[in-house]
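To illustrate this point, what follows is a protein record of this kind.

___
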Amino acid sequence: MGSYLLVKCECGSLNTVFKFTKLPVSCPGCGKKVAEPRGGAAKIIGTVEKEFD
């Protein structure tokens, strides 16, 4: 499993997100959250397009 995720926001923007992020991640295109920390793996709010190591 990869440590980084390519997440597609509902606005269509692609964002690279660390899978175990400790801070909320917002889309630079529209400002909506694409990931929220959960103490382990982040909750992804969007579509995971690809995983990277």
About this structure: Residues 14 and 43 are 16 Å apart (CA to CA). The chain has a mean pLDDT of 93.
